[in-house]
Amino acid sequence: MGPKMKVTAEFVFGASHRLPYYNGKCFNLHGHNYHLFVTVEGAVDAKSGMVVDFVRLKEIVGDKVLSRVAHGDLNTVLENPTAELFAVWVWNELKASLPGLAEVRIDETEDCTVVYRGE
Asked: For the segment 21-63, what is each residue's pLDDT rounded down to a tens digit?
């Protein structure tokens, strides 16, 4: 087993949402260009030299998350899709398929970020 480290991949996608319990502009349907960062932590495999294969990481995130939300409406997967609850949803969608899942980061805008590291 090699050294332990974190590996992160970034995914950029557009999606809409509305916050049904918010008293303000975000109550109305609107969209964001989200930046999703998924981090896996583990030991570097002695043979492959990798913690996780980036190609496989991208396939899993694409299948479990992006296929359901990119260019769509987050309200179809969450009743109240705040950035915080969306991060928890992403975590829950990925945890069974990504051993070593360490962090989900969502940049809803360029200056508003949520980080979730599991329970």
From this structure: 999 999 999 999 999 999 999 999 999 999 999 999 999 999 9
User: 40: closest CA among 88, 114, 98?
Assistant: 98
Catalytic residue among 10, 30, 59, 71: 71
What does the pLDDT read at residue 2? 80
User: Catalytic residue at 26?
Assistant: yes
How many CA atoms within 13 Å lie on the side-chain side of 8?
11
Ordered by start, the domain boundaries in the chain are 1-9+61-70+79-119
Choice among 26, 30, 59, 112 that is catalytic: 26
How does pLDDT run across 71-82, given as a tens digit for each residue?
A: 999 999 999 999
DSSP character at residue 98: S
For this structure, is 71 an active site residue?
Answer: yes
Contact 24, 68 (CB under 8 A): no
